[in-house]
Amino acid sequence: MERSTIVRVHEGLHARPATRFVKLAKAFESDVELVKDGKAVSAKSSVKLMLLAVKENQEVTVRANGADAIEAIEALIGYLENPKAGLDDEETHAPANDHGKEAAPAPAPRSAPAVSDEASSGLRGVAASEGVAIGPAFVHLPPDIAGQGRMLQADEIAGEIDRFHAAVAAVQARMDRALAQDSLSAGDRGIVAALRDIAADDSLTGEAEKAIKGGNDAVSATITAASTIAADFSAVDDHYLNARADDVHAVGRQISLVLLGQDDASLENIPQGAILIADDIGAWDLARAPLKRIGGVVCGHGGATSHIAIIARSHGIPAVLGLGDRIHLLRKAQEVALDGNSGQVIIDPEAATRADFAGRVEAAAKERAGLAAFKTVTPKLADGKVIEVAANIGSLEEIEAAQEAGAMGVGLFRTELLFMRHMHLPSEDMQAETYAALAKAFAPYPVIVRTLDIGGDKPIAGIEFPDEENPFLGWRGIRMCLDRPDIFKRQLRALLRAAVHGNIKVMLPMVSDLGEVRQTRVLVDECVAELKAEGVPHATFDLGVMIETPAAVLIAPALAKEVAFFSIGTNDLTQYIMAADRLNPTVAKLNDVTNPAVMSAIELTAKAGVAAGIMVGMCGEAAGRPDLIPAFLEMGLTELSMSPASIQRAKKTITAMAAGE
């Protein structure tokens, strides 16, 4: 059996998405292949799958042959069509940088200039993780590993192959132990899991076995196999896959060390605040290192999409990578200053430079510490009115980050991911458990759950969507839900059940007509009656609407009489007001929330809500902008919901505004 589809996985099947895809494929007995441009590879090999270089929006075919072929194809196609499948934890939980904003996506690797007057101006590499640091150099340049350099006798080959497999098993076991530790972060866990798959992949082990059968000792065979596969990754026209070459070398090194009975140089003794200097530190080593003690990382290998960079960014460690052979210029360094924003590295800086970097580091630390003080602050205006600063989240996994930031509840819980991450529509029980867990986590603060907001631009399994030339103006949000009461009522029943456990509020997306609210109320009443008849515990909830269409703005006074609250979704509202697709870079300049037309729409909405005495909030990206928050509060907004990384800065802005008043 086979079925074709367009890949929606974020950034395609690079390391961790490929690992997850392979894990899913291995769950089925059938032989499974993935085909792209006429080339077929086993879907159960991470290396072969990554080397196929499957990118987002490309067409592929899944083939399966076996007893469970139908189930395999359904599951794998579902994964490939899930836009969230490729989002790494460090992307969905982006740490705050020195400016309090979410870390930006990794820039494309920049090549370092040739050595010229670097002694005075410093080295230049790839700016891989933002921030500045200065500290003592901790040079981690272990010697290269070499094979025995002799040819095996025929009667030695079988034993050498066994020795090689034992070394692979030892490396896997070591990684399994690391994965079992609670101290490993979710992002680092994904990286270690990807490395473990490479260690066991048939491509690597098969290449090494072939070399051993040709008479090479196991260490030489491992080095040769790793170099061969790394070269294949380097040749692919994709910077994500190019970065996997370093991972293959790192895994090959670990296997070789086991074969030699050696331990790699340890990072356990790195001093507090030291700058780690390495040629090619493996992600495996860095993930296990005492990361809280590392002040910065400077590396010869690696780029902005390498696992070294990902780990550094997820832990807020400034990093400059890709220095090449110039890394050896730091071999005798006593102190190093680096700027992860520009890629600059300065060896043994002079007094003035040292003072400049020390000042920048101190200022950044003070800013972070200052913002942290606002975690528990309840921001109020001068008249004592409380402003709720809440979090936008899409899954239970994001609760911890929101709580750590000091979120006063959830201003937007996107339920799409709950539907998109499963092969079938989630049951009422599954939804009720999810919403209840959310309510309990933030009680007594409110949790605003947005009902299913999907459409042709983000389809899910179990719902057939028509082909639409412009899905943003099509069958989506409340429009789809009202046409599919079988799906909508299941969600409403789950929300009513979850409301027993906390302060659940429900808001409807894409509302443009009063009738949509009234039809929803009829369905809610039906669900209440059903649950009562069944003897199922439930509670009522406040019903509100997202203001994101021009129609909703114009009928806001009438809508305000029908609902308990407004939440302004500035992302979609801006694109609809400006008639400019927010995903189209050629009209990106029009997608500006500060445009007078958009600000007027926000003000009209706020006035209507205030006049009716209902809460008016905002859950678009603009809600976290310090430059706009004063204007929004003056309009009458009393709730702002944003990404967790922006919460403490928003609280600070509101507090300062009140003090100014």
Give an overview in words.
By secondary structure, the chain is α/β, with parallel strands linked by helices. The chain contains 26 helices and 20 strands. The strands form three sheets. An eight-stranded mixed beta sheet has the order 5-12-11-7-8-9-10-6. An eight-stranded parallel barrel has the order 13-14-15-16-17-18-19-20, surrounded by four helices. Helix 6 runs antiparallel to helix 7, helix 7 crosses helix 11 and helix 23 crosses helix 24. The longest helix is centred in the first third of the chain and has 23 residues.
In short:
The chain contains 26 helices and 20 strands. The protein has 661 residues and is an alpha/beta fold.
Q: Which blocks of ≥5 consecutive residues have pLDDT under 50?
A: 88-120
Measured as a percent range, the helix fraction is 40-55%
Tally of separate helices: 26
- CA distance, first residue to last residue: 69 Å
Strand line-up of the largest beta sheet:
5-12-11-7-8-9-10-6
In total, the number of strands is: 20
Content-based structural category: alpha/beta
Largest sheet geometry: 8 strands, mixed
Oligomerization state of this entry? single chain
Task: Reconstruct the topology from this structure.
Elements (H helix, E strand, L loop, with lengths): L1 E5 L8 H12 L4 E6 L2 E4 L3 H6 L7 E7 L3 H12 L8 H4 L25 H4 L1 E2 L1 E4 L2 E9 L16 H23 L6 H15 L1 H12 L4 H18 L3 H4 L1 H17 L13 E5 L4 H6 L5 E6 L7 H8 L4 E3 L13 E5 L4 E4 L3 H22 L15 E6 L5 H7 L4 E5 L1 H5 L7 H15 L3 E5 L27 H6 L1 H14 L4 E6 L5 H21 L7 E6 L2 H5 L1 H4 L5 E4 L1 H9 L17 H17 L2 E4 L10 H7 L3 E4 L4 H14 L1
Parallel strand pairs: 7-8, 8-9, 9-10, 13-14, 13-20, 14-15, 15-16, 16-17, 17-18, 18-19, 19-20
Antiparallel strand pairs: 1-4, 2-3, 2-4, 5-12, 6-10, 7-11, 11-12
